[in-house]
Amino acid sequence: MLFGEFLVAKNIIRPEDVEEALAIQKAQPEVKFGEALVTLELFDYDKLTIYIQQYIKEAGAELSEIETLLSQEQADALIRSLQDQG
Q1: Which residues, in sequence order, are CB contacts of 14 under 8 Å at separation 6+?
Q2: Are 65 and 50 in contact (CB under 8 A)?
Q3: What is the per-residue pLDDT across 16-40, written as a single tens digit (0 to 9) for each?
Q4: How many structural domains are present in the chain?
Q5: CB neighbour burial string for 52-65, b if at least 16 within 10 angstroms, e if fewer
Q6: Is 44 helix (H, G, I), strand (E, B) or coil?
Q7: Which one of 15, 17, 78, 79 is most buried, counting C-beta atoms within 10 A?
Q8: How far apart are the C-alpha atoms of 54 and 50, rounded to whole Å?
Q9: Which domain holds residue 9?
Q10: 77, exposed or middle or buried, with CB in 10 Å at 0-12, 13-18, 19+?
Q11: Residues of the chain with pLDDT under 50
Q12: Beta-carbon-side half-sphere exposure of residue 13 (alpha carbons within 13 Å)
């Protein structure tokens, strides 16, 4: 399950929001999916990291997927935090 699908399934965002975020990514390939969601003001980075943590735990996503959702710096920080938690 992709992160956008996870958020839609949890009723956090709408399918239209996923499409808008993907359109941002298409226009600006350097923008990660999670960053696009924040750009759309669907939630802030703090909420985004909470949703990513839920996604990893509930959907069995790999830590490496974080790098597709956040900037490298943000992804590294979140991965370190998750590894420290055990």
Answers
A1: 8
A2: no
A3: 999 999 999 999 999 999 999 999 9
A4: 1
A5: bbebbeeeebeeeb
A6: coil
A7: 78
A8: 6
A9: 3-85
A10: middle
A11: none
A12: 23
Q: Which two tokens stand for residue 11?
A: 């009723």
Distance CA 85, CA 78 (A): 11
Residue 60 backbone class (left: φ over 0; alpha: ψ -120 to 50; beta: rest)? left
- pLDDT at residue 86, rounded to an integer: 64
